[in-house]
Amino acid sequence: MLFVIGAMAALSIDVVTIYTARSEAQLAADAAALAGARVLANSGLTSTGAPNGAETSARAVATQVAESSQVGGRSLNASGACTTGAEISVCFNDGAPNFATDPHITVTVQRSDLPTFFARIWGRTQLTVAASATAEAYNPSNATGLSTSTNPPVAPLCVKPWLLPNIDPTQTTLTATIFDSDGEIVNTGLVGLGWPNTANTNGIYSLCGSACSLGATGTTTPSAGAYYPGAIDAGDFPAPASASIVCSNGASSASFNAYQLAVAGCVQQPIVCGANSSINIDTTAYGTTRDADTVAAAECLIHYVSLAGDSDSVESGPPFQFLGGNQNPIAGAVGKNLLVSDSLVTIPVINTTPGVAPANPVQVIGFLQVFLNPQAATMPLSPVGPASSNEIPAMIINMAGCGTGSAAQPILGNGASPVAVRLISPP
Predict the structure, then answer these.
(1) What band does 387 get if pLDDT is binned at 50, 70 and 90?
(2) Whole domain around residue 107: which residue ranges?
(3) Which residue, of 2, 12, 168, 379, has the fewest CB within 10 Å?
């Protein structure tokens, strides 16, 4: 009896060891795949439809995450490639990315020398455990000529209350659009471009600094790169709590109004695009300080104090690499490459007609992910546009269109990025 009980106890130790190691392997694979997919999403890869070297960075990040996880009591050894039988293998869906197949990353982790206890009586001293995870950088846009009406739209969080007309912000013409009615990206070459530039000398500013006059007889018509302020209320952009916002320049967020809090903080309400989108432009009287308030809130958001180099910057791209600024709140991030940045924001794009002032409610048909003050220059801009000096430079990092007819259940909870990252295991 003692021998049987002892054998069962030893067997249970082996079983628990195997299941624990298998669970650790799966967690390592999941984390590595998601980290690699986030690199693909932030690289602009899903918006351009062309390889841009992002896989190299994604593989390095995924490998680093997998190496930092222990399986069966020790760290794994990386092969740095897509290698069958390696302890860490990182593979991509070759032939992608394109707009019919979003880029996937598959991470397989394996340990073939897991020690046994009871199984030694049968001469089995080592066991193998392995796990695999596939993550996708999902962009609802489609450049194949197929309708996106059946594709799930996205509903990101922390969206800024700047409703950008569906006009190419890098040009002065009002007929060049960002998305078509199906959510297709009209010009994939916009990724990496920004405004102001030689064609559009204005930065980001409000189309109606005091109050918006909308509708058929309205006077505030769409303009390239300028936004309509979103309504700050429970149904549109509920302002976050001021206590959660800390400005690097010493400004107190307690002095911010609700609009500024929505810019400097994170609006937790998902903003849906597509057929089910309904959002309002702020038509109430604001005064003449809309653009000045926008710059002050944006400076708080991107940790700008007073000098060039204070905020984070875009070092290269695509694929994009972000560089920590001198005022980055994480001391170890200053001067280092970053995967995320507070300067990277998402702006809704609304359905508009050139020369016609929109009427409430308006429909969100896509999103631009832009990097504010990408060269970490002195803020605000010199007087060049209608908003005088209170304008903000921006660079386009990603585009995600849903179109006017996409009515599927939106993908929620993907954070601030309009390009969702999700596990789609098994491959």
Answers:
(1) low
(2) 2-138
(3) 2
